[in-house]
Amino acid sequence: AEDPASSLREDGWGARPRLKDASSTDVVVHRGEALSSFWMCGDLYRHDPRTLEARGRTDWDGWFPSEGVSAHPKVDERTGELLFFNYGLDAPHFHYGEISADGQLQKYIEVPMPGPRLPHDMAFTEHYAIVNDFPMFWDPQMMEHGLYIPRFHKDVPSRFAVIPRHGVEGDIRWFEADPTYVLHWVNAYEDGDEIVLDGFFQHTPAIAPDRRASFEENLFKYLDVTAFQARPHRWRFDLASGKCAEEPRSDEFREFGMINGTYGGQQARWSYHAIPAEGWFGFSGLAKFDLATGE
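Below the sequence we write its predicted structure tokens.
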């Protein structure tokens, strides 16, 4: 029922110019509505969660960030809050925000970044949100020519911003870890002075293109879980010492981990992972993963 032209931006929507907001990456349920989102930021589109009837774009009491919202916002089912982030080409390059259970803006702050970054997901605990600055980002020299080519900077550490929920920008704590890229997180929780974060560590984030292959074939290879070798991994952020410890949890290729959502931000026992088959997001089944033992 809306005028399609009203959603068009002169330079495109979200984190990259001339990129369509397909709202095709993720769906969460907040305040009784299913919200679809796009990984390069854009609008959140509202739907009836049972009938999928379209209800238009999200408008939080007359406010929505001009930078849009990235895919993989998180809903804390214990509090009803929606936690989200966005990112873009221009400074400030990254924001984190919180929406209350009744749809009111609670917080929208800048998270300082050295330049444009390409985060894909976030995590949260009872008292903190965790966002990242990975060494996989657009090549700055290519961007000067209007080309958006991601490069993996293997000598640059991964960085994690631990943000107190309801805190301010000055409360952010940063932790460094081994260089990698993580597409999806499983969950995070607090364990004494530590924050425990589970996700999928990519051992070869940068896939070398095959000059003999077509553009489409190389694209499919770039989104092949077996090619970038994603494996279950755990990070521990010690809030007392400011240090990060990490460990692999399995030698098997896995991705797209999910838990029972009622345990979001709390310690959960089980997660469910896609078992990859070679090819573009090709999967052969599901694995039930014991988060306590790694089995």
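The CA atoms of residues 55 and 139 lie 38 Å apart.
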